[in-house]
Amino acid sequence: MFVIDNKPEVKEKKLSEFQIRYRELDRYYSEKELGSVVKEGATIFRLFAPSPVQVRLCVFEKPEDSFCREYFMERDDDGVWEILIDEDLTGKFYGYKVYHEGEDISNPNKPICTDPYSKAVATFTTYQNPRRSIVVKQKDFDWEGTEYVHRDWRDLIIYECHVRDMTIDKTSGAKSPGTYKGMVERDIKGGLNYIKSLGVNAVELLPVHEYGYCELPYGTIKNGVINNINPYERNHWGYMTAAYFAPAAYYSENSPSFRWNRWIGKSGRQIEDFKEMVKAFHKENIAVILDVVYNHFSEYELGNLKQIDKEYYFRLDENGNFESRSWCGNDLKTERPMVRRLIIESLLYWMTEYHIDGFRFDIATLIDWETIERFTNEARKINPDVILIAEPWGGGAYNPGGFSDRGWAAWNDQIRNGIKGENPFNGKGWIFGKWYGNNSPKRIKSYVNGTLRRDEYGIYNKKEHSVNYIESHDNYTLGDFIRIASGEVDAHKIIKNVDEFVRLSPRQLKLNKLAALFLLTSQGMIMIHEGQEFARSKVIPYNIKAPDPRKGTMDNDSYNKDNKTNYINYAQAETNKELLDYYKGLIEIRNKYEAFRRANYNDIAFFDHVKSEFGLAYLLKYGEEHFTVLFNAEQEVNLEFPLPPGNWEILANDKQAGVKKLGEASGNIIVPPVSGCILRMIRDRS
Asked: What family is this protein classified in (predicted)?
């Protein structure tokens, strides 16, 4: 029998001249030290950019100067432009004029490009973010014996926070509010002192790389892009990185409000301020993790990698247009050899120069696996315990398992959506007595165990690869999610008295406690977002000048608001002190008893409640310690649970939590609706 293949012949599409040139750029690579380097009284400048036809170095005395000393640079065969100036130019400002084929080399208005390897940057605060790199000579810093914080990932309780938000409100008591210095001031209510009081052992800082502070003027169109969504014209969170080696200057400015059309960062003190902050956290044995953005670059500004060499540094379509699977206007081509080198060297620099303990990677699926694997190997040579966390989605991909296979942790949105829900309108989760999506009692049990692959619902190889969280900087806070989902607050309600609005109703308090109890008794890495512990509300001020149609309502996307929407108000922590104390008590229990962090899969035995699928119980063993954990996610019905034989002390119930005994129980115990409890077996001391 003969099989005839009648499939039409597929002809390979002929590549355009641009596509050929674009592919050929892969061959360029150099090992030369890049950036500005001061050695033996001279300063060497090197810029990798294989496509331009001419590059000029511009050296300024002051960033605001219009006049500069201009030098023609020479290109080597590997695409590196370089020049040696026989002067120590430490403290001088510089940038590059980069000319491509067909451009007018006599153009006096050519944008000055920032050195991608800048160690410090001065920025002019407009939407195009003009910058000047600063020549920095590395000098000794007194770390006072502090080093990395070495901690088993299973023990991590991370506090995700924003440097400015933590101390800019007057209730923090900071003398340098909103700054690196303010974050670690002594004898104040906010910042490090507050974080330490919670009992957490790591902070994850929203982006602190120098970034694009401003966006397009509201209502204007530039290069086919219109700003019709951001009336604040700001990027407050920092997810528009502009310089991968430089700390954000804004957090050294000690300014109560953002100032437009000003140069910031001129002094370069942001370097030392940042180091002092890290040192202060390390003295308290609190690890410092940076949220980093290597999937895209700052979108609107002139004078960055897009002007240096668009074709080398970015993923482009067949017509030479930016790909934007990140939804941020441009995607870095991380698989290019010299982009990979830029990423890896910048990360290692933060580890060695700033003693950073780990990183959380924004939209990490847009970073190629080879870059991730190479960085992992190099980072662990410096610190074997380096913390590596992925946001394991973006650009249409979802792959927490791929990161787990490479020894990384990843945000577990499954536990977030399963326990809280996906949205507070028609996507409510387990704490509301609902099953969101494909969630079920079996999935809830999988979350308790660390969402491990050894059961059919898991995605991680190790439980410490699961970053368990219910709130992050994105979307509604947990407190606001519950306010809306409880049906007690209209999402469109105009709120004028925020301090009173934040006060939890009895039902809202119970829902927040139940979520906290589940989170902090689950196996895996734990993350809490700033203010989650007192049900912080992100209310847009009703009387601000910005033309925001959502003034006065709860915000679910506060990336652009450098105002009280995002600032931490410590008076509100007092308002909801019962919830705050409950979080502290649960953290205290988790820190003291290793069972909640290190129990083996087979050390957790589940028991279903015969009358409710929302009743969950399990016996937890670790060494000589035995615990029983009970949950009742029914909304109105008490559930009675039989306890394993023995006498049990109550560590947490619907009112309190902590290592001090709240009472004893044996036989059966009644758990009220929307609550749970933790019981520890009392050992026979006879």
From this structure: Belongs to the glycosyl hydrolase 13 family.
CA distances from 641 to 76, 521, 522, 654, 666 (A): 75, 18, 20, 15, 10
Same-domain check for residues 246 and 189? yes
Residues paired with 632 in a beta bridge: 615, 675
Q: State the chain's maximal CA–CA distance in angstroms.
A: 93
Domain holding 539: CATH number? 3.20.20.80
Q: Which residue in the block uniquely carries the two structure tokens 């990183």?
A: 359
Q: What's at 141, amino acid-wise?
A: F
Number of domains, the chain: 2
Asked, for residue 628, whether it belongs to a domain, the answer is yes
Same domain, 582 and 633: no
**Would you tell me how many other CB atoms lie within 10 Å of the CB of residue 421?**
25
Q: Do 514 and 654 belong together in one domain?
A: no
Instruction: Find the DSSP H helices in 503-637.
Output: 506-521, 570-575, 577-592, 595-598
Burial zone of 348 (CB within 10 Å; 0-12 exposed, 13-18 middle, 19+ buried): middle
Distance CA 202, CA 587 (A): 13
User: Which residues pair with residue 433 across a beta bridge?
Assistant: none
Six-digit token string for 600: 């083996």
Question: CA 476, CA 529: separation in Å to the nearest integer?
Answer: 11
Instruction: Give the C-alpha separation, 669 to 87, whole Å.
Output: 78
Residue at token pair 């400048």:
45
CA distances from 169 to 173, 191, 276 (A): 8, 11, 21
H runs (alpha helix) in 106-249: 180-183, 191-198
Note whether residue 7 is domain-resident.
no
3-state secondary structure 22-74: HHHHHHCCCCCCCEEEEECCEEEEEEECCCCCEEEEEEECCCCCCCCEEEECE
Among 576, 592, 608, the domain boundary falls at: 592
Give yes or no for a contact between 523 and 596, defined as CB atoms under 8 angstroms apart: yes
Domain span holding position 374: 153-293+327-439+466-592
Task: Say yes or no to pLDDT of 168 above 50.
Answer: yes
Whole-model pTM: value is 0.95
Q: Coil, strand or helix: which one is 640?
A: strand
CA distance 579 to 512: 8
* Assigned domain for 85 exists: no
Last-in-domain residue among 592, 619, 640:
592
Q: What is the pLDDT of residues 254-313, one digit of tens each?
A: 888 899 999 999 999 999 999 999 999 999 999 999 999 999 998 888 889 999 999 999
Please give the full DSSP string across 104-126, using - where no structure is assigned: -TT-TTPPPBPPTT-SSEEEE-S
In terms of Cα–Cα distance, which of 668, 670, 675 is closest to 639?
670
Instruction: Give the β-pairing of 263-264 and 121-124.
Output: antiparallel
pLDDT in tens, 87-108: 999 999 999 999 999 898 888 7
